[in-house]
Amino acid sequence: MAIAVVLLICVGVRRELAAALSVGDCVALAALPVTWTAVRKARRFSLLLVLSILAAGTAYIMSLLAESSFVVEDWARRVTTLSLLAVPCAVAVFVWGARRLGTRRAAMAVGFGMFLDSLPLLQTNSNPWKFGVGAAVTIMVLSFVANRRRLVQIVALLGLSGVFLVSDSRSTLAFLAIILGTVIWQALASWARWNVPTPRRLAISQIIVLAVVGIVAMAGVVIASQSGTLGEDAQNRTIAQSESSAGLLLSARPELGASWALFQNRPWGYGAGVKPRFEDLWVAKRGMAALGYDPENGYVENFMFGGRIELHSGVMDMWAAASILGGLLLLLIAGMALAAMMRDLGRLKATPWLFFAALTVVQNVFVGPWTVLPAYLPIVLGAAVLQPPLRDAAQLGIDGGLGDEAPSKTSNDVTPAGPSSDVVPIHASGSHVGTEPVPTPTPDSRAETGTQPGSERSRSF
Fold first, then answer.
1. Of 215 and 414, which is predicted with more confidence?
2. 86 in Cβ contact with 48 (< 8 Å)
3. What does the angle CA 101 – CA 102 – CA 106 come to, to the nearest 5 degrees?
4. What residue ranges do the domains of the chain occupy?
5. pTM for the complete prediction?
């Protein structure tokens, strides 16, 4: 158990070691001989593993071929290639650790690693909460309250939202508002004994509710930002972006214009560690200028293309490094994150830490840098691997715990998979992310444990 805690904490630490390699990547790669047993028969993991290996190989080979036409940074090639290989390895660490600690505690351990990694920001950054500390604390707090009553979760979400409100963090505040709205909605639905016959229908119904909550939350954050509630700097940015002819999203992320222009100019990408030429710089600036953004301010030269190609979009960063396969890998990651949230909505008690991490992943896949993603991927993709199919999600009346108890250790971490789940130990009816492997209950045992639909436990707030 102690080894699992240490591995999970290390995976959350992105601090660089020698040769620009991160602690998390090195530990995940080194631990694979041990953690492989936890994922070797998980079907959802297989496609992630194959795409990661293919993308890493493509990125490396393309960078070698580009050496005749481009300047290639060896350190950037090494870091990009190994970070792609480390993605499935870090997921294996999470799954392996979750089988010993419980999923909730595994997420908390990774969050603690992220917190340790963000501590230097307290001395080097004027807003450390916004740029790292806040996300790590949020993962830990939401993991801690995940098996508490909904009222405790609501209080925690309100407290975290208040801190982000005064920290000029628009997107994270919107995510917390979405999660808060979802928790409140599910509390009311449980109290009213809302009856949906199947987990699939329940998930679809809640996705519609979540979409409405999301639109309201994002609109509320924009209005609050424009009114100055989030600070003068956020107010000025939001007003300027709203008045732009490109619209709020595109003016807030002019890098999308550069990405599209570069894709049109060189659709096969560049390679890991490739530094752009003057021609590529000019193409990127032209794409940003088309959105009404003035690129002649040093941002493009010093930040986007200072050492390698960084397009402030995970999918485009990996397209540039690993061609189409890199883009497909990031789209798979986004799909797994969305699928994890959908399966979690097959019951009336969402997992707050999973939603926060998954929303962060989806955002950074499309409009955030690749460098933000590796710390969150073990949590989200590991949870996605551990989840049972939606049809096996907990029924409406079942309000199970969140997996504090670790499963008993056997000779194999994963038993042969059956037709209804990726990993047999977690396909038991009523299980979910945050619930550890339990024996499949019989009708008699279910009656004895009091977990049948309509029990008093399911109506607790």
1. 215
2. no
3. 70
4. 2-242+312-459
5. 0.82
